[in-house]
Design goal:
Structural class: alpha+beta
Radius of gyration: 16 Å
CATH architecture of the largest domain: Orthogonal Bundle
CATH topology of the largest domain: DNA polymerase, domain 1
Number of domains: 3
Helix content: 40-55%
Number of strands: 5
Strand order of the largest sheet: 1-2-3-5-4
Number of helices: 9
Strand content: 15-25%
CATH class of the largest domain: Mainly Alpha
Distance between the termini: 43 Å
Amino acid sequence: MIGFLRGRLVAKHPPGLVIDVGGVGYEVEAPMSTFYGLPSVGTDLQLFTHLVVREDAHILFGFATERERRLFRELLKVSNVGPKLALALLSGMSVDNFLLCVEAQDVDAFVRIPGVGRKTAERLLIEMKDRIKHFGTLPGVSVATALEPQSGAQAEAFSALLALGYKPAEVTRLMKAVDASVQTTEEIIRRALQAAASK
């Protein structure tokens, strides 16, 4: 198992990125929460990783924090939740927001994420209820590259834009157009929609 990768960021096109580790280019898929904190191309970084082995492919997933990777792994244990859906869940909300939704048994919050139907959302709430108890004792270990997990406002704005029908890659592009000094969810959404309208 590959626990982490440390190398130079060569390319990033959500949800995929390429990291040059000693002359070998590793293709990695990452949630949007990790993409928000990625440095510019050509910069060194380190990501926690999880390798999914299938008959037709070996897919490496990368995460800015250990908590993200741990939640991803727990999601894979849920019935009918594969890597693609687990990545969508982590892209649609932060780890803390996910835990809060499970605590509150908020089905609607999960249903708003593309690819999550009501039955899947209900299954997530049931199967994750006991598993999330251990997350409170797990510190949010940040990678040494100072990658910051997305803020609550960014996570909420991201989810709202997804609910409006924008694709994850498009939402990422729109939110990058928003000035980093903007802190409120409403203002982030408003400016992102302005950016969309000006295209």
